[in-house]
Amino acid sequence: MAERLDVIIFGASGFTGKYTVFEAVSVLADLKWGIAGRNRKKLEAVLEDMGTKANKNLKNIPIVIADIEDQSSLVEMAKRCRVLINCCGPYRFYGEPVVRACLEAGTHHVDVSGEPQYMETMQLKYHKQAQERSIYVVSACGFDSIPADMGIIFIEKNFDGVVNSVETYLQSYTKGGSAGGRGGIHFGTWESAVYGLAHANELRGIRQQLYAEKMPRFEPVLKHRPLIFRSEIVDGVCLPFPGADRSVVMRSQRFIYEQEKKRPIQMHAYVAFGSYVTACLVALVAVVFGLLAKFSFGRRLLLKYPGLFSFGFISHEGPSEAAMERTYFSMTMKALGWPKTDNNTPPTGSPSKSLMVRVSGPNPGYGATCVALLSTAKTILKESDKMPGKGGVLPPGAAFAKTSLISELEKHEHGMKFEILANK
Hints:
Blueprint: E1 5-10, H1 15-27, E2 33-37, H2 40-54, E3 63-65, H3 71-79, E4 81-86, H4 91-105, E5 108-111, H5 116-132, E6 136-138, H6 146-159, E7 161-174, E8 185-186, H7 187-198, H8 202-210, E9 229-231, E10 236-240, H9 245-260, E11 266-273, H10 276-293, H11 296-304, H12 306-309, E12 314-315, H13 321-325, E13 327-339, E14 353-362, H14 364-383, E15 392-394, H15 396-400, H16 405-409, E16 417-423
Parallel strand pairs: 1-2, 1-4, 2-3, 4-5, 5-6, 6-15, 7-11, 8-12
Antiparallel strand pairs: 7-13, 9-10, 10-11, 13-14, 14-16
Helix pairs in contact: 1-2, 1-14, 3-4, 4-5, 5-8, 6-9, 10-11
Pfam families: Sacchrp_dh_NADP
Domain Saccharopine dehydrogenase NADP binding: 7-138
Transmembrane segments: 269-293
């Protein structure tokens, strides 16, 4: 067998996959990498198109043929590399066979899943086996949920005290006029959300098996904000953020608590809009989406007419490159806690110290996400000695807390910037 590649991008002809190939030209410049999928012609076309876009000849990039329906081909693909980047979702349908292949082949695995049921099921079923095989399996390595999970790691490194709680406020905006063009998110993300919400009741059973013991209660408890409210932190009207950020952060915090006995950080996540009108419209769409996703007939409607139910925001073609390049995100995070004491006594009383940070970047769905995904793979290759234990199924905050992942993310044009806004 030929020498193992450092990285293979599986699902490279998909929407996220092809932009991961584009970002790989710079992020993986010092590594040996290849691409994989089931259709050679489509993979060759991706290399040609993304090579032209990057002004780089990619014809010599290795191509591996693998099919999600053929487990032996997945194992052979995994044997060809040290880290497999899986861009083939929805992960609740297509993720587990790839994880199994990586465990059999002794290959690390990263993906961009924002599906709590999938991520926590993989942890429940394969964490011990991954530890035994010295393999890291890390999901949520994209926009879900690197900004939130690594943002909290960044907060703790800069807090100089004990953090009790963090609230996150996500905003997105466009520069240079309206984003225009096709929908802002690809259909695959919508499909994952439909099935994730439809089966949300699975999570309780998964978590009861995954966590036999409840976490101790730490005071003061971070309370939920109203369903809709105006926040002075971002000067916007806010709703609860429906993504995976909180579940991912809580998994990281629990892992760190169990490994290091460190007080876990409480967290709630919100998304901010410019006006009550916009926020109310989004809330209305969310209610309709939630109701329809509960029934098979409703799911069929949501999947058949994504543009209708998202006011044109979702499309099978995904956003245009022009729209993506004009889209930016900003996640403002406010931490509350207590100053550091001389004798490291446990904190008491109301939190008296705050820290405000911001994680921001361009093209969150298909630029920053792809850079983050590639950067996690690169970090496993170069800094596994700084990662916990010898392997396991982990969220990014738990996996990369002591690595230089944040610095790596800040190096790239479509990466992410971590900055301190206020320290009081």
